[in-house]
């Protein structure tokens, strides 16, 4: 029986987008304003965002405010503390339980981890994209694989959970880059990952390379396959995958199945079934993917965990 791992905690995450804020450079694939569609938020706009989410969302045991989009721990300290203090106001009133942020691996050190822990951050998401040093250079990330391992180590020691954001199907990605990422993921052992299959965004360096014919986009079927392989590797390591793909907006090209998460699960099950797996155990939120795969392999069996 192949066992799939789901997230134990499913918090209500209230996203506060800070597009590109704190980032020391622009990565070759990045256009945060195109993804989020918003500018830098003010403390007042954060207040409204959180209040709106709390008013229309179903109650959850855990509610988090998450500062997404930029490199939160790399923004000027005073501005970072303004955002943190606004989040703490909601924690102190009891409507929010903890804070969360996304940042660069090289924007984490022991002092930053201490500040985050003291200010009620329970999780930090690291924009990593790849664990292949060669591919990180092609992406113009500006940090190393060692920076990733160092950041995860520091955060874990501080008692902060780590989520690693990885990208599959970048145009310069080779099969070896893909395999290196999977192999090093087993050594890194984050608490969870997000997988973002590559999407060409306008006004980025990589889109210019594509438009000029210097590089070609990998076929969507290959990207889906590599995503399924990374997903399966994460399941084998008991690392939850908390999201696959970006939300579709008018600024984000619609090039993958809308049910990307379930499509990847289905592909993963199909590949496992080809190798002889017949029984699967998985969380309820993955069952749709199982049912999709069962159409091709009707003999497979499911146990819901």
Can you walk through the features of this model?
This protein has helices spanning 32-36, 43-56, 77-93, 110-118, 133-138, 145-157, 175-188, 205-211, 220-236, 260-274, 287-294; strands at residues 2-3, 12-17, 63-68, 98-103, 121-129, 161-168, 192-197, 241-244, 279-282, 301-304. The chain is an alpha/beta fold and 305 residues long. It has a single domain (7-256), classed as TIM Barrel (Alpha-Beta Barrel). The strands form 2 sheets. Strands 2-3-4-5-6-7-8 form a 7-stranded parallel beta sheet. Strand 9, helix 11 and strand 10 (301-304) form a beta-alpha-beta unit. Helix 9 crosses helix 10 (260-274). The longest helix is centred in the N-terminal third of the chain and has 17 residues, at 77-93. It is globular, with a radius of gyration of 19 Å. Residues 33-37 have low confidence and may be disordered.
Report strand order across the widest sheet. Answer: 2-3-4-5-6-7-8
* Domain count: 1
* Global morphology: globular
Question: In the CATH hierarchy, what is the superfamily?
Answer: Aldolase class I
- Helix run count: 11
Short structural description:
The chain has 305 residues and is α/β, with parallel strands linked by helices. Helices cover 41% and strands 18% of the residues.
Based on the model shown, name its key terms:
305 residues, alpha/beta, TIM Barrel, 7-stranded parallel sheet, 3-stranded parallel sheet, 10 strands, 41% helix
């Amino acid at each position: 029986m192949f066992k799939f791992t789901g997230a134990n905690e499913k918090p209500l995450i209230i996203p506060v987008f800070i597009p590109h804020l704190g980032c020391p450079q622009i990565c070759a694939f990045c256009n945060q304003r195109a993804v989020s569609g918003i500018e830098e938020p003010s403390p007042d706009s954060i207040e409204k965002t959180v209040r709106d989410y709390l008013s229309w969302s179903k109650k959850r045991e855990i509610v988090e405010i998450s500062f997404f989009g930029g490199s939160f721990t790399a923004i000027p300290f005073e501005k970072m503390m303004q955002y943190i203090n606004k989040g703490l106001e909601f924690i102190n009133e009891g409507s929010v339980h903890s804070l969360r942020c996304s940042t660069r691996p090289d924007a984490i050190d022991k002092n930053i981890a201490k500040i985050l822990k003291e200010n009620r951050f329970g999780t930090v998401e690291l924009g990593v994209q790849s664990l292949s040093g060669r591919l990180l250079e092609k992406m113009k990330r500006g940090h190393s694989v060692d920076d990733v391992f160092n950041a995860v180590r520091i955060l874990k020691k501080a008692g902060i959970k780590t989520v690693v954001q990885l990208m599959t199907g970048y145009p310069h990605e080779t099969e070896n880059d893909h395999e290196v990422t999977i192999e090093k993921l087993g050594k890194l052992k984050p608490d969870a990952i997000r997988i973002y299959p590559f999407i060409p965004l306008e006004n980025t360096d990589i889109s210019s390379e594509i438009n000029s014919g210097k590089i070609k986009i990998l076929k969507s079927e290959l990207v889906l396959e590599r995503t399924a392989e990374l997903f399966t590797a994460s399941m084998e390591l008991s690392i939850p995958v908390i999201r696959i793909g970006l939300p579709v907006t008018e600024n984000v090209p619609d090039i993958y199945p809308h049910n990307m998460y379930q499509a990847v699960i289905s592909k993963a099950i199909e590949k496992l079934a080809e190798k002889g797996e017949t029984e699967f155990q998985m969380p309820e939120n993955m069952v749709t993917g199982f049912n999709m795969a069962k159409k091709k392999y009707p003999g497979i069996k499911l146990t819901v965990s």
